[in-house]
Amino acid sequence: MTTDEAAWLRQGENLSRSTLIELFFDLAFVFALTELSFTLAAHLTWVGAWQVLVLTMAVWWTWSVTTWATDLYAQRAGLRALVIALMFGVVLLSGTVPDAFAERGLAFAVSYVVLQIGRTSTLLLATRRHPLRRRPARVLFWFVISAVIWIFGAYVHDGARAAMWTLAIVVDYGSANLGWPTPFLGRSELHEWDLVEEHLGERYRQILIIGLGDMVLTMGEVYAAGRNGPMRTVGLATTFLTTVLLWQIYAYRAGEWITTAFTPGSRRARPARKLDWDHLVMVAGIVVTAVGGKLIISHPSGHTPWSWLAVIIGGPALFLLGRAHFGYVVFGHLSLPRMFGLLGLGVLVPVLRLATPLVAGAAVAIVLLLVISPDLPDLWRPANFQPPNIRMKQLRHGARPKPRSDRPPAPGELTD
Asked: Which of 54, 221, 361, 396 stands the most exposed, by the fewest C-beta atoms within 10 Å?
């Protein structure tokens, strides 16, 4: 193995925090998520929703695989240059999102394929004489297979393109969940994925903040684009409150203690894959909620079509669904307040059919407020307080528990 190859390998380095280049890379996804939300707003049909879901999963997979790469490889000049190149590719990819199922389908497919194959090929060449070269080799094999489907799908139209690109998404995600089984190379082993839980947990927290930033950007653009009367201002306040509540629902407990979901040793990859799915669902929920906020601000009064009600209620419901399973991964049990919140949002669907968009948005905000109401006393507790269930999980894993306050546990601390 040459010196250049060794420079790409993270050999026992302490990567507990995100780097500036990773935060810089995430800026491209503000643009990506904004384009996805505005594309969904322009195509509020079942077909349009499916198309945006496919595009969202493609954008997410670009972020997710890149994040795992920056976690697994050394933060050197070569990797930083690769991340900057990928960032430019994400900007190009995001610019094609609005017309990906129209005249710019080939541009979207080529951008996505070049991003995935380019990154993986670079990592394969950089580690070509190291035993870990099998890791990018397996990933590259499956990206080449999906690339054929992505490119072929760009040459067909309408439902055929959606079907082909859905198949490509299934290949990308399915091969990863199966460990990228590859002829002559076998399946990826868990010991090959020496993930750093502190770093990966922080990256997932940051992409959620990026998603919520997209909501703030969307509501600001919509509010600034029209004549700002009292109703629009109330709509802006309602949407902003929803954003704050989503952030609090994520951040409380599980968002703070995400690293406890990772088991020690070589088994970190399993919970990491679950967390990846959970954050995909939450990011998708944020994109849909941003569309609902756009409708509430721009049309606060009047009739609420079913499609509008679907995004106003469906976005927060998606977020709660992902957050509930996220809490299950971290704590080992489902959160009752979040499950009741999902039930409450479901009950609102027929009730709000005759309400205005503003009333519907306010009702959703009230449900979210009720979800976090059991957590409100904990918001005033010391920053170093650690719930007992987290401490017990750490002790079972052999980790040193973090310091906590000396006061006795309050009622409800054993729940998420």
From this structure: 396
Bridge partners (DSSP) of residue 160 are none
CA torsion sign for 214, 215, 221, 222 is positive
> Tokens in use for 178?
């199966």
Residue 182 has φ and ψ, to the nearest 5°, of: -135, 135
Whose structure tokens read 């790409």?
8
Architecture of domain 197-396: Up-down Bundle (1.20)
Surface-to-core class of residue 284, CB atoms within 10 Å of its CB (0-12 exposed, 13-18 middle, 19+ buried): buried
Please give the Cα distance from 172 to 369 (Å, whole number).
37
Domain positions in the chain are 3-192, 197-396
pTM for the predicted model, two decimal places: 0.85
pLDDT in tens, 1-40: 454 555 566 555 556 677 888 999 999 999 999 999 999 9
Nearest to 204 by CA among 111, 271, 135: 271
